[in-house]
Description:
Layout: H1 8-17, E1 22-25, E2 38-39, H2 40-57, E3 64-68, H3 73-81, E4 88-92, H4 98-108, E5 110-115, E6 128-131, H5 134-137, E7 157-162, E8 172-176, H6 177-191, E9 199-201, H7 213-219, E10 224-226, H8 232-242, E11 246-249, H9 251-261, E12 275-278, H10 285-295, E13 298-304, E14 311-316, H11 324-330, E15 335-336, E16 341-344, E17 348-353, E18 358-361, E19 382-383, E20 386-389
Helix pairs in contact: 1-2, 1-7, 2-3, 6-7, 8-9, 9-10, 10-11
Amino acid sequence: MRVPLITTDFLDRASFAFGDTTATVDEPDQPAKPVETTTYAQMATRVRAWRAGLDALGVGEGERVAVVSHNSARLLELLHAVPGSGRICVPVNFRLRPDEVRYIVEHSGASVLFVDPELELDDVVARHRFTFGEESESLLRFDTEPRPWSAPSEDATATINYTSGTTARPKGVQLTHRNIWLNAVTFAMHTRAWEGDVYMHVLPMFHCNGWGMPFGLAGLGVPQVVLRKVDGAEILRRVRDHGVTLMCGAPAVWNAVLDAAATWDGEIPGRDRVRIVCAGAPPPSRTIQRVTEELGWEFLQIYGLTETAPLLTFNRSRPGPAGEEKAKKQSRAGAPALGAQLRISDTAVRCSRGPMWSWRATGRTRRPPPPRSRTAGSTPATAATSTTRAT
């Protein structure tokens, strides 16, 4: 019997096995009223209410729902609610210029748009537009069971994630349920995530769905603390106050934490307990050494692409004396992640195969919302091949 790998599997397990466990702690300092701290049973209830609300709007399977927001509990819930109902979530980089955001919303064919109240995006519109807070909460239908997805398929598109558009217009990458499912499980395995962890969303969730962490950690019943904006001292405070054990982010984030630690009063929170996952830019070996020595946090290095969903390589330090030489080894991309195969030449590393790499790129022109279909987004995908410079 072949059972499709669907993103709903993660929250379904969480609500069944960890219903009374804290699921989300929303950012308290935000322009919208924060979502109250929820258990996984309560989060599942809210996710069903989001789906029922989209049903009431007449949003069909395969239609796109764009979200432009800082990290928030509502964005986290929509990453589960939208794909789990056969629709497609489009998390958009809130740091882009308004004209770039408008291009993505139009290019993706989004029929629903959710916007953070702090963002000035009056010219970005869709058929249905909501501002996070009281307006978006009015959409939730707690008294109605949502329609079930008519024909769940692991090859259906779950999210469309747009690249930053460094050299041209942003390109949309369509990730399937299978992509997200396999990446979430593989990522959790490599980071050794477990039920005793507490995760903090330092990494923006629009970055390839928070690298898949919202899904894998839900499946393990891990509490998820939301951080809206990066601040080194605030990260240290929340590590202390919430018992955070796992975070992801770019090197600049950890440099901010190191700067804050220099004036921190008392013992550094999380020593010998916290694991951080770093990607987005090559981390200086000195930064790695300082994280391990000054903070006492374990440093994990990865490399990936949106097109690979994203995990491609993983680097965890092996037992041995700490110091500069160990930090230099840790600054490298690492070994292939489980299931990935690489070919290395003198000039580049070519990704030849990976179990998560079944993606599609969006077209070059605007795609209107598709009609309702029992097989929306289930066209067989092609394998991805990518090249990056050797390190």
